[in-house]
Amino acid sequence: MVVEAAVLRDVAAPYSVERVEMEEPGAGEVLVRIAGAGMCHTDMLGRVPGDLVAKPVILGHEGAGVVEAVGPGVTGVQEGDHVVLSYDSCGRCGNCLAGSAPYCDEFLLRNLTGLELDGRTRVTDESGKAVLSRWFGQSSFASHSLVEARNAVVIPKDLRLETMAPLGCGVQTGAGSVLVALKVAAGSSIAVFGAGAVGLSAVMAARVAGAATIIAVDLHEKRLELARELGATHTFDGRDPELQAQVTAVTGGGAHYSFDTTGVPGVIATAVGSLRPTGVCGLVALGQGDIVLDPNVLALGRTVMGIFEGNAVPRVFIPRLIELWRQGRMPFDRLVTTYPLSEINAAEAASHSGDVIKPVLLPGS
């Protein structure tokens, strides 16, 4: 079948919206007509020089849409279902069976290469050349996506799909890190470094958890203003030379938890240094260099925890986030700005500059 997709052909090239040929769903797969696809910072890995992500490739890993066809052996998902797409996992390894699917033995291969596990070509361009189409098991910067039924989460049909799209990664990662991985306790303090989609989702989740002191740190005053509206009790400019001392002061000796979404080594050092003894720092961004910590920082029982996808199992956690949103306690829709898929390059620029928090692309608009 012929579908429309935003194809990235080189790290420095703009996306090109093209007509491509896509196979029908195979065993265990579903074909989803994409209604909205969030643009996440992780999609920027496609622009990292080198061979991390081969080209040409269709990126996008926060898709939401309607199931149009199901392949042989699919259970739990049927034609007409509305679904949110999340990361892929094997469902068979020890971590998957233990409820730790983000740490699947095959996570990197299934999510960060865009490659088919069996080496087959499922999508070709108009010249017949293969286009990688399995980024995070979905490659949702397109009008349609082929996914394993396992990473499609069925949601109620009364919800606006484009609003729900960011649940597949960004919102799930921020909220899951607070509620599932860090298990932020009521009455505690947390400092969130980076007020993008992941960081602001963490701020909202910290309010849900009942944290008494919620600090947001960013370089953009507009984002800090939104953080205050979403639950932050204190906000600080990340350029403040006294930032660590400021966090330590307002938390009465250091935060119980800190959470870095930037991956910047200096910011991570500040996040760890802002903890009280026995505090825990969660890291979710891919690192941008070596992290140097004072050797005494960890000697007082502080912990640094790497987190993937908020430690969340999508089919369990995404329905919970939707219920919190219905109650008005997790208004993640306030992060979203929509763009037609044809304006993907403008959406990417706005996201990179910080002008937009969560671009959501609308195929067919």
TrEMBL record:
Its cofactor is Zn(2+). The keyword Membrane does not apply. One of its GO terms (cellular component) is cytosol. This is NAD(P)-dependent alcohol dehydrogenase. Residues 6-361 form the Enoyl reductase (ER) domain. GO terms for molecular function: S-(hydroxymethyl)glutathione dehydrogenase [NAD(P)+] activity; zinc ion binding. Keywords: Metal-binding, NAD, Oxidoreductase, Zinc. Belongs to the zinc-containing alcohol dehydrogenase family. Coiled coil: none annotated. The keyword Metal-binding applies. It holds the Pfam family ADH_N. One of its GO terms (biological process) is formaldehyde catabolic process. Gene3D superfamilies: Medium-chain alcohol dehydrogenases, catalytic domain (3.90.180.10), NAD(P)-binding Rossmann-like Domain (3.40.50.720). PANTHER family: ALCOHOL DEHYDROGENASE (PTHR43880), ALCOHOL DEHYDROGENASE CLASS-3 (PTHR43880:SF12).
